[in-house]
Predict the 3D structure of the following.
Amino acid sequence: MIDWTNANFLPWLIPVPPLIASALIFLLFNRSWFLTTLTALAATILSWGMSLAVLLRALGLAFGDPLGGSAFSSQIAWMDTGTTQFNIGVLVDPLTAVMLFMVPLAISMIMIYSVGYMANDPRRERFFGYMALFAGAMLTLVVADNLLLLFIGWEVMGFCSYSLIGFWFEKESAHKAGVKAFMTTRVADVIMLIGIVYLFAQAGTLNFRDIFFNHEFLAELASTPALIFGGAISAAGLIGVFLVIGTVGKSAQFPLHVWLPDAMEGPTPVSAMIHAAAMVSAGIYMIIRMYPLLAAGADPHHGIYNAPLMLMAYVGAFTALFAAIIAVAQNDIKRILAYSTISQLGFMMAALGIGAYVAAAFHLITHGIFKALLFMSSGAVIHAMEHGEHHAHAEHHGEHAAPIDVQDIRSMGGLRQRIPVTWWAFLAGGMALAGFPLITAGFWSKDEILAEAWHLGVGGEWFGPAVFVFILLAVAAFLTAFYTTRQLAMVFGGQPRTAAAEHAGFVDPEHPTPAAQAISGFMQGPLLVLAVFAVIAGFVGVHPDFPLLGAIFSPYGNPFHNFVTGTLAEEMPKVAFNWLPVLISFLVALGGIWAGWMVYWRRPLAAGQEDPTKVALDRVSPALYTAMQRKFYLDELYNAAFVRPAQWISDVLVAQIVDRGIIDGVLHFIARAATVIGETFKRFNRVVIDGVGDGIPSGIARFGGWFRQLQSGQVQQYLLMALLSALVIGMVVFVRLIGRG
Amino acid sequence: MVPLWMYLVVAAALFCLGVFTVLARRNAVAILMGVELMLNAVNINLVAFWRFVTPATMMGQAFVVFVFVVAAAEAAVGLALIIAIYRRRQSVVADDANLLKW
Amino acid sequence: MLKEALIQAGMQPGWAAFIDIFLGVLVAASFGMVWVLFGIWVERKMAARVQDRIGPNRVGPWGLIQNIADALKLLTKEVIVPRNADRPVYFAAPILAVVGVILIAAVIPFSPVVIGTDLSIGILYVIAVGAFGVIAVLMAGWGSNNKYALLGAFRVVAHLVSYEVPMVLALLVPVMLAGTMSMQGLVREQHIWYIFAVPVTAFLFFISSQAEVGRAPFDLLEAESELVAGYNIEYSGMVWAMFYLGEFMHAFFVSILFAVLFLGGWSGPGAEQIPFLGIVYLMLKSMLVYFVQIWLRLTVPRVRIDQLLAFNWKFLVPLALANVLLMAFLFKIIPTPDFAGAQAIATNEFAGVAGGIYRLFGPNQIAELPRTGLLLLGNIALVGVTAALLGQAGRRARRQVEALVDETDYTPRAEGAEHTAEAPAAAAR
Amino acid sequence: MELTAEIVVFAVFSIITLTGGVGVALTRNLFRSALMLLVSLFGVAGLFVLLAAPFLAAVQVLIYMGAIAILIIFAVMLTRGMVTARRVMNDQWSVAAVVALFLFAVLAVIFVQVGQGESAVLPLNPTGDPPADGTAALGQALLDPAQYVLPFEVAALLLAGVLSGAIYIARDDEPDEPSQTRG
């Protein structure tokens, strides 16, 4: 039986509880709300506990010998693919351990939060089913030891995201968004799958440790020319590119990011889950996991770049800046966060592109935490606004106030008095996102990335991509700080601009007691927990040489750095501490916040007042702001480029031409041919077979008729015939006699 | 002594006349007469052979006696049939009695 | 004797024999023809006497020439041939009738020496020749193209053919006794006249021959009261005379036959020595038989055609068959008389009385005496049996009639017994 | 072959027989052909006499001419209607004539060739003399168990059966008026 204490088996069990919970909910408990919540929470907390146990074991704090360089892993035979046997198993190495800290935490917080959020939704059981499945898939992905199991988790998550985004499927936009999300991620996944298959073809196995720890293979892979683009790129390079494209789709990088903002249609916990805890981080996690493969044949630290790294660097950096610009112009509270997620992921992608995979991992963790926090608090805000809407509606029953969009920040304002807990949580998350120096986790992780970028690019010789990355990231960081503060100001600052905002927050407007908070306890608890983590998580990765804090938090080198590098075979060189990047990150963060405050907080917008940024930008060019707001018309572009042609292809080309024209044509032709053949056969049949068939009997009949005359009934005729024959026979015999005689 | 073959020739002639009568005559009774002629021709042969070849044994004559018996029987039955047919069909022409056909 | 002379004359033996026989037959036939004239006269005279009248006496002394006168008359009469009669058949019929009868004469043993020809199958020849008569009748019936003639012919043929059967059976017995069929043989074997040995056979032969000839009770052939004149209706003149002649000769020849078969033919004392005596004996015997015939003809009423046939097939034929069987049986049992022994005794001088008797009565006769006696007994027994049967049949018939007829007035019974045209039982059966 | 009496007589009887036969075959009137049959039978009887078979001749005359011919004539009478039929021959007479002639030709050729050739099968002259009393010998043969008594008895049975059968066939179905001699 399974030895619970044996660390190797524990990882197996982590993904299991949520999967079981989802099965149970779907199949059995979908009627009772109590049972659903019970199983869902129990499952997530259980898996969280187990992952904590694994984490502690990994950190060596508990359960015997620390992980050190090795990793727990155990495999079982899964598929017998002809000659080779395919094993799947679990692998816990420092990277996984880190992920196991962030993912279960976020998932459980979201689960608790969603209990409150979905309390009065008609199909809430179904929601929890999907959420449990989502969590299970994410955990499988995390603990997977080979690429295929990872891919399975990847796909299941894709499915869950589709179903959750399109949860309120009666809303047209909801299920359209779901389809959109699903299609775009699918495009990327297909390419990724091709990469996986190519890798499997080359390596014969997909196990991480087998591939990434035998260098000859990697070198050999790097040297062999790729199948398709042969000359330009090596096999490893091609596989890397494919995998990166997969991540681009999954983590919503530049070309394939359009689905993320629309994903906001889903309920808030979903967006939290997708954008923070699971979905997007999976992509980055996969790249970190595949780093040796991607970096095969290249050494970013020494300026040797190959195709995948270059791709990641440029795409990441550009996405970061691009998303940040758009985020500034958004008015929907969740859409802003969505674009911020895209830009943050851009940060991580860029970091990976230039080789700083540890910094990327660190940022991944911290971002996961504060982005989850931000989403949940925005959810709380929306919840409060809905209450306000109801009350406003109820009071002014008379004249019908135009139904306002509960998610539009322009209809909010002054909510800090109404929902104080949410206000503090939102503030913590926002500052972390903005990268408020020193005290927020976001600062440390972002600073780490900028430091690395500086060191590789600007500091040293002016290598191409690193420099480009550094500049873009810096600007993006400034913009991030700016739109975060804008959001804070618009939502919480100033006076409530609408009646709904007026009544937001209180269940019962007459007596605004904190108990009758619109936001139930379930929702506020997780907010506070995550807020705390958002702050303290950063101190894990303080650079040892950091003037004051370094000594406190990382006496023997950057703890996070030491821990994570264990996963990769070769040791990653530590970056020397350098004042300049830290100073820049200081400047950027504070600058952004100040700007935002100046524009939005000091002179809060009045109801219906134009957005000052918009006014500013209009002076530059009227079309710029609307372009930013309309996401640079990318959706329309994609729509025009892909969707409409696809539709055209499907209904015109396929339906009319192919289907009706060819297939029907063929069928009709065959039918007609068959009838013609049948006809000829019939005629042939009538002529020959009938001819023969009838011919014979009629022939016989005629012969019979003639033969009948022979028997004429005339006795004398018979006698004559008898005599004749006798004579003939006599003659014959006689002749014979004579002959012989 | 009259040679044997003369008798045989006469008998053959008589036989052929009988054959012709049987085959050619339309009247059933005539056919019977033809048959009688043929039987007589046979008798002549028998007696001739008896006389010339085996006068000692009485086989030839005995045979002739039996031929007589048979001839008588045949004539009796034949005529009875003819009369019966005549009574029923009012015609003794051999051709008319041709029902026994397909 | 003529034959030897001719052979010496250098003619081939075949031819010589042929001519010899031919002449003999010629003589016999002519005798027949001559005698007929006398015969007819005798018959007409007797008939007259029986009917108490004189008979022909005008032409020639006692009417002897009457027949010749008739013949002449007939000769001069015109022969009328019916229209579309079958001419050849019409004229052939009478000829055949006469020929049939004359041929019989060929074998009549007038005397030990005088005989047309002594065929080994004499008696069979006679019967065979009888067939000609039948044919002649048929031809006459058909030839004259007359319905009555044809019907008459049918009747006569049926009559003749059926009576031939008992006659042949009757003939069997003397042939069996004599052991031979040749006429001379028969006469010589008849040491004791067969009439004494087998009277029943004689009776049978006499009756059937009467029928064969168509005389006496059976003279239906040309009975005036019946079908006009039977088959010879259309005949007139000489042709009719031929028929008439044929008939009379046949009657006489039959009587001769009877004489030959049952009365010992020409045998008589001294017949062997004097040929002519034989003829005289034969003539006497045949005249006797002829007399009986005429006597019978004139006294016995005519018999109807169906009675005639019924009498034949129901009485004569069975009787004949029984007779033949009985005779054959007896003949087998009785040892054949040893004429040799008798001769020896007769010629044995020392035989004494026996020798004397033998010589007196002729040794053969005595030798044959036991067989004849036994046969006679057989016959008598047969007659007795037949008489008994007849009596019984008669009584049964009588009872039937009485059942139907009231004894008193012989009218049909009152209680309407179903009136059947019951004629009184036939005399015959 | 010098012209002995016998040959002359043979010729006479043969001519009688053959003319009778031809008459039977060709005469139009059925009754006449019947008579011609009688003539030919008489001729055959004569041939029998020549062949030293007097008994057979007598029997021939007695039975054939006396009975069978008469029977045939009776039949002719009974079917009176057909006696003077117009068409005498049926339509296959030509073929029949050819076949008959051919048959006769074949037989004649064979008999003449073989006969004259002194072969054992057809001796020119009789090889022996018939027994003195042929008739008695025949009688003996017919009743001698070693020889032909069985066929003789069978013949008797045959005749009995045939005649009764013939009577039954020819019997007129409608009962005519009750016959005189009832009982």
